[in-house]
Amino acid sequence: MSKDILSITDSRTGKSYELDVTDGNIRAKDLRQIKVNDDEFGMMSYDPSFENTASCKSSVTFIDGDKGILRYRGYPIEQLAEKSTQLEVSKLLIDGELPNKVDLDKWISDVKEFNSVPKEIENIITSFPKNSHPMGVLISAIAALGTFYPNSKEISDEEENYKNICRLMAQVPILAAYFYRHSQGLPIVPPDNSMSYSENFLNMLFQGDEKKLNPVLVDAMDTLLILHADHEQNCSASVMRNTGSSEPDPYSAVASATAALYGPLHGGANEAVLEMLTNEIKTVDNIPEFLEKVQKKEALLMGFGHRVYKSYDPRAKYIKKAADSVFEITGTNPLLDIALELESIALSEDYFIQRNLYPNVDFYSGLIYQSMGIPTPMFTVLFTIGRTPGWLAQWKEFLNDKDQKIARPRQIYTGYDSRDYVELSSR
Length: 427
Ligand code: CMC
Prior knowledge:
The chain is mainly alpha-helical and 427 residues long. The protein starts with a strand and ends in a 28-residue tail after the last helix. The protein has a 3-stranded antiparallel β-sheet with strand order 3-4-5. A two-stranded antiparallel sheet has the order 1-2. The protein has helices at 77-83, 86-95, 101-113, 119-126, 134-147, 158-183, 197-206, 215-227, 235-244, 250-262, 269-281, 287-295, 314-330, 335-348, 350-354, 361-371, 379-399; strands at residues 3-9, 16-22, 61-64, 69-72, 75-76. Residues 231, 234, 265-267, 269, 294, 300-307, 355, 357, 360-362 line the site of carboxymethyl coenzyme *A.
């Protein structure tokens, strides 16, 4: 680690301070020594939405948003998407290294060992109204799952944590598939341990429909899961760490991260893109009118823009490529023409150029999911399955980080000074 010094002179007092600079950054807490009067709390930095605050040191995922680079544990996302599998990538994210054959086989078999959910959980899932949003059901079912494993609260026990990591990897897809079957009025399809992770998931959704279980589609599903597996300190990963910091069981933390992912500005964008294309834009001819609305700030172009990427999201680039192999099997998605034209027009307009707005991971993923026969409300559920190993990797890293404590941001209070209670009759 490189160490430097930042010298600050406070023009209010004329005092100078020297702050350690480590890897180009200062510790926010070092600002606290800067005060006008001794009885002051000391200076903080105001950073709504944490746009310029590093909350942790992490060796899980690297993003260079200007260059459009994404790496898991140093491996380029394109190579992992091309050559690896979701379970291998999960092991890489959680443990830090690509496993050798023996370790990979053990990991796969350990995950499979947990390939069934308690009957009561199945009953909970099938007691939801069929038209419930699957993300609401998934959040509830993941939290409920934790109640069956009270030892999962023992988060300082690494063996226990490993068991719960395997269980979450195995069972989040099962919860998702069981609700899908229930929502369609179809009988539950239990997991099949002879299948790969993604094949088993698609089989639990679509057993008996051979077209939807085509190996090319299974591969595409696995690739999509890999592309979604981690994305450093995004909204849901931060929630995973923040919830985890109060030391609940990992099921509760994953349920809270799932809730954070649900919103349309985060993982819910894939669903919102499909709705935008289907219900708002509808035809290529309507694109200019829609983009005018976007530029007047009357609408968002869903699937565009990113807090970190200020160039093309490498995941979107890869997904666009992967879509071809899916469409060869399923036939092209009629919405693809609208999406391609929308992208091409948007990327040539000043509004998007000036703000560096490019397609993100959610712009094209929904078109693939839809062609695979997955209903739109399930799209963010697929994101959840893909992202679960990333959350678990972030959680594990958090637990082992001696710098970390319970998350507790400060505020700048802007309310009233002390004032006396006013009786109801006098208000
Ligand atoms: N459509 C229109 N304008 C946009 C969009 C968009 N999709 N995204 C950003 N802008 C504008 C924004 O209005 C602002 O304009 P101005 O400078 O005039 O105020 C400027 O671009 C900068 O945007 P920002 O809102 O400050 O950026 P942010 O980092 O706070 O937000 C974002 C990032 C992803 C929430 C946002 O780009 C967005 O709402 N995109 C649409 C939803 C979406 O696709 N989300 C999925 C993100 S990728 C999957 C994931 O990992 O979650």
